[in-house]
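Continuing from yesterday's entry. The apo prediction looked reasonable, so today I'm repeating it with S-adenosylmethionine included to see how the binding region is handled. Same sequence as before; SMILES copied from the compound registry.
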Amino acid sequence: MRLHRNLVFATIDALAEIFNEGNYADKVIEKTLKRDKRWGSRDRSFIAETTYDIVRWKRLYAEIAEVKEPYKREDLFRMFAVWCVLRGITIPDWPQFEKTPERRIKGRFDELSRIRKFRESVPDWMDKLGEEELGEKVWTKELHALNEQAPVVIRANKLKTNPKELAQVLSEEGIETSNLRNYPEALVLKERANIFKTKAFQNGLFEVQDASSQRVAEFLDVKPGMRVVDTCAGAGGKTLHLAALMENKGQIIALDIYGNKLKELKRRAKRAGAHNVETRSIDSTKVIKKLYNSADRVLIDAPCSGLGVLSRNPDAKWKLDPEFLDRIRKTQLEILEQYSRIVKEGGKLVYATCSILPSENQKQVQKFLKTEAGKPFRLMKEKVILSSESGYDGFYMALLEKE
Ligand SMILES: C[S@@+](CC[C@H](N)C(=O)[O-])C[C@H]1O[C@@H](n2cnc3c(N)ncnc32)[C@H](O)[C@@H]1O
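Holo prediction written out below.
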């Protein structure tokens, strides 16, 4: 691989913004890719993938390069040189890479690879917590899986198409996919591509949604004609899936505390042809109280650490901290206690997170069942999806019935 100066410089600029200014990697990359219209798809994927790679391996690379935060530009070039050496890419003879100690880099890599927190590149506190909660064996395997690049999975929108037909349409647009066994609506891309540009996407034939995430709406056991409340709907990944499972019949009320996310949800629902979705912003407790005892099904896709989706969002390793986790666990329990009241008698509730920590998952459900609001509920089943076992995101979901 020959490195192009403008692409490497764009990557270094993006890294400076992510590491030193604390901006979100996806947003920074999106902005960086708009910088030069002449960049083709290969150039764009070089910038995106290299930036994500160096974000993912930040601790390991910084340790090998012997640099400390806040990183100066020359430090970022040193980390970039580590990336090159470990991938067997010839270092260009630019002044920025003068005297790159290739042998020393390889030696340091071998040394540090013996220690999990360096090998898998995570902060000390996260490594300790993961081991405490999951045990040494599971955490080691899981962490390794969460450092793999995530495959691109899409969900065929059954309101408009089916996986077979969609695969054909995408193939005609030059995008090859394969089926995913046991995931009835999913297709996985054989090669990464900018699928948002396809006509199929613009016509609402699919959504990008990880395979594990596609399990959540299924778990809620919805039927056409039901009244369903999606309480933490965000931009509507699961809402749209629910609409498809309900064949557009019945009612879905999508809630979130952020109005801008719900705006995006509405745009996506229109594209997907989902007509039974109504959005409501939670701007006071009244919004929730008005819905008490009214829904056949309630989904709580709770805000969480996102530790199950590190392969998609490696940035979270550096943005999360133990205080945030404490706060989010409190919020999760409050949400469970309040929003569960929306379920009517005989109705069902799914509590889901994209975390793999029992303290955000099973333990929260157990705590909830002991509260006043939890008393009428019975845990019907729960599913723990580990990335190391499924090959997709880590997720948790619990189905509860109100008796
Ligand atoms: C895991 S995300 C939801 C993802 C979304 N369901 C999807 O499938 O695309 C959690 C969502 O909860 C929202 N949220 C955070 N605190 C909340 C609260 N107290 N009540 C309702 N929603 C909340 C966040 O804005 C975020 O959109």
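Comparison notes:
- The chain has a mean pLDDT of 97.
- Residues 5-120 form a domain with the N-utilizing Substance Protein B Homolog; Chain A fold (CATH 1.10.940).
Will overlay with the apo model tomorrow.
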